Each structure stands twice: as structure tokens, then as C-alpha cells.
Amino acid sequence: MSYVDGFVLAVPKANLDAYKKMATQAGAIWKEYGALAYVECVGDDVPYGEITSFPRAVQAKDDEVVVFAWVVYENRQSRDAVMAKIMADERLKADWPTMPFDGKRMIFGGFQPFIEL
To answer: Which tens digits make up the pLDDT trace of 67-82?
Structure first.
């Protein structure tokens, strides 16, 4: 069964084009190293919940949009190998000396699917 990394983050609306450029470049590198799929989505219907929600989770401000992204790998072993290459890739460090979002508010984690239809 596959393995998935998931990400939720807030991107300033003024930086959305820069973020999309960065994500496009990053996705190509992830795929180069073996990711099966790389998907980035901008929030279109993400209401601010009373108790919890995507905007609350990343402390999104009024001038920010929520981005939800995921990467699919063959399995956990493949993900770990891809991530080791990603972390060592100098292109990622050189191309983005400053990120177009606040990485401290990003939520991320690895997930083991239990249903794949």
C-alpha cells in the first residue's frame, strides 16, 4: 500500500504566485526522486470554524489563503529514500533562500493509508 505526506499551510495572498512557482519546482524534484504524485491545492471552501478548522490550524490571517498539499509514494521505505534526497538537494536550498510563507505555522506529517479505492 502507498504512503502519503500531507501538508497544510497559510500563504499570504500577495505571495501566492511566488508560492505556486516554488511548488511547481518542488513538485518536479519530488517526482524526479520517485514520488508517484504531488498535489497542491489552494483553499476555496475552508470556513473558519468555531473550535477547529484548516484556517485555525495554521493561524491563517485575513490576508492569507490556506494551502493543502500531499505527496504520494510507493510505500514508507520509498518515502524515506525520497525525503533523504530532497533534504540533501542543493537546488531547494539555493532556489528559495526565503520562503513565501511562514514555515512555523505549517502542519505536516506522514500517513499510512488503510483504504485505497
So the answer is: 999 999 999 999 999 9
Average pLDDT, the chain: 95
Domains of the chain by range and CATH? 3-111 (3.30.70.100)
Flag whether pLDDT at 53 surpasses 90: yes
Contact criterion met (CB below 8 Å) for 8 and 57 = yes
User: Minimal CA–CA distance to 79: which of 40, 58, 110?
Assistant: 110
Grid coordinates representing 93 are 536550498
Give the cell for residue 36.
508517484
Strands laid side by side in the 37-42 sheet: 37-42, 64-73, 3-12, 107-111
Inter-CA distances, 37 with 14, 64, 69, Å: 27, 26, 11
How many Å apart are CA 4 and CA 66, to the nearest integer? 19
**77 φ, ψ (degrees, to nearest 5):** -60, -40
Global model pTM greater than 0.70: yes
Checking if the pLDDT of 14 tops 80, the result is yes
